[in-house]
């Protein structure tokens, strides 16, 4: 078959349906959208790649044992996650809906591929071209009238390892939900591998999806307001499922990963807290975002009067009243953001300024509440709003150290690398916990080559000087 690069060959594209061994798989399922879903409705899919190095690298072992186990466990996992096998539609006389009907059409696409690329190069932290990751991400085949929820790709690197690429539609999944599914798949795959199944594999409570959306109250109809008015500067056809275009120009871009140790975080916190005007306790997330964003502004050489918009999402499961179940499956994150002038970020106290303002924004969410914040977001139209002619720059975040992505073990060991590939389309900074479990943080980003070289120098030297 044709390959999608000179290094990757597509061997098979199959459809995996929920296992009919589970009685739940025979049920028809329909989920309506909440205002959380509707805010993210047109955002680009979130793409991740999980790289696994094999202790016994053998193509025969992969095709005879590993791949069949992955397919079998995926089918079982989908019986718990039926929405993923369904499709997103937007009927003319109704709101958007996610529906699953148990037939041959409701399944997910799984691509099997083989690559002769350098596995260690792709799964390393060093600077490399951003486009090198693209062949390992499956495409979500969207149309104006229907959209799948998730697509998967498993790629073998003979005698090296394999990777699993995930492309997830943001209208139905936030980051926590996507990782919940991936970990559930890994958990069941481990059961399939390690023992003969005498009974249907089970999931722990934290990996069992909770689908009830009745506790998400929307008295003002924010769901439809988001769909009508967001984003403000792009016009879509009525009921269209089109997504916004990529925010970032990919040509000539490079990707790299950087580590921030727990000792680095401690020193950054001490410096920030000693300079704060208010008694705040910035989270690790806030400290890393503040420090990294200041380095990005320096690397890009942004002019001092440029308004830099920090955009990030806060998980609202525990912030709703009453709280949503921790294992709620769907979108339950609200966007937050602040403007800071580039000149303030590159100054001596740039990290302190950013950390203070970001902490205040999070504190404001607690004071206002989730729904009032969602109403404010409608007015601000975060990321896409049209304002004055002031120059602007966006800094956003993908992922979180709290997702614990490096615990995703399918029975072949923990990932050597987990990469959020879609940041090359959004310009976001990705975050994950350090894979060694030391308490540090791993960040990834995509920049122009000369910007990345400056960023690396500023980032590394800055950690030494803290």
TrEMBL record:
Keywords recorded for this protein, A-Z: Acyltransferase, Transferase
Annotated GO MF terms: acyltransferase activity, transferring groups other than amino-acyl groups
InterPro entries per record: CAT-like_dom_sf, Plant_metabolite_acyltrans
Gene3D superfamilies: Chloramphenicol acetyltransferase-like domain
Protein name listed in UniProt: Uncharacterized protein
């Amino acid at each position: 078959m044709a390959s999608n690069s000179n290094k990757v060959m597509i061997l098979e594209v199959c459809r995996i349906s929920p296992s009919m061994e589970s009685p739940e798989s025979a049920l028809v399922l329909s989920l309506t959208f909440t205002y959380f879903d509707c805010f993210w409705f047109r955002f680009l899919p979130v793409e991740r790649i999980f790289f696994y190095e094999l202790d016994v690298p053998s193509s025969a072992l992969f095709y005879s044992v590993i791949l069949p186990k992955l397919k079998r466990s995926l089918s079982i996992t989908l019986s718990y996650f039926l929405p993923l096998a369904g499709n997103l539609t937007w009927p003319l006389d109704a709101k958007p809906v996610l529906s699953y009907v148990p037939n041959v059409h409701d399944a997910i696409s799984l691509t099997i591929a083989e690559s002769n690329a350098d596995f260690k190069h792709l799964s390393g932290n060093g600077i490399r071209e951003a486009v090198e990751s693209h062949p390992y991400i499956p495409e979500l085949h969207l149309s104006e009238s229907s959209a799948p929820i998730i697509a998967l790709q498993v790629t073998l690197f003979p005698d090296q390892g394999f990777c699993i690429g995930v492309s997830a539609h943001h209208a139905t999944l936030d980051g926590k939900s996507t990782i919940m599914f991936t970990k559930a798949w890994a958990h069941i795959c481990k059961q399939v591998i390690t023992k003969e199944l005498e009974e249907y594999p089970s999931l722990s409570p934290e990996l069992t999806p909770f689908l009830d959306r009745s506790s998400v109250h929307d008295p003002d109809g924010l769901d439809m307001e988001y769909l009508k008015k967001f984003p403000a500067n792009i016009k879509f056809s009525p009921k269209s499922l089109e997504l916004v275009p990529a925010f970032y120009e990919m040509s000539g871009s490079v990707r790299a990963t950087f580590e921030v140790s727990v000792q680095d975080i401690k020193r950054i916190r001490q410096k920030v807290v000693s300079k704060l005007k208010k008694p705040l306790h910035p989270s690790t997330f806030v400290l890393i975002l503040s420090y990294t964003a200041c380095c990005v502004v320096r690397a890009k050489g942004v002019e001092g009067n440029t308004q830099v918009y920090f955009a990030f999402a806060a998980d609202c499961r525990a912030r709703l009243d009453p709280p949503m179940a921790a294992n709620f499956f769907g979108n339950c994150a609200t966007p937050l953001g602040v403007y800071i002038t580039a000149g303030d970020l590159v100054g001596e106290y740039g990290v302190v300024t950013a950390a203070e303002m970001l902490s205040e924004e999070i504190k404001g969410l607690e004071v206002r509440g989730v729904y009032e914040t969602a109403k404010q977001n409608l007015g601000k139209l975060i990321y896409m709003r049209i304002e004055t002619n002031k120059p602007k720059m966006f800094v956003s975040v993908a992922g979180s150290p709290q997702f614990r992505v490096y615990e995703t073990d399918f029975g072949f060991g923990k990932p050597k690398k987990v990469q959020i590939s879609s940041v090359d389309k959004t310009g976001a900074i990705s975050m994950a916990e350090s894979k060694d479990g030391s308490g540090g943080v791993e960040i990834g980003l995509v920049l122009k080559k000369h910007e990345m070289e400056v960023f690396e120098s500023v980032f590394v030297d800055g950690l030494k000087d803290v």
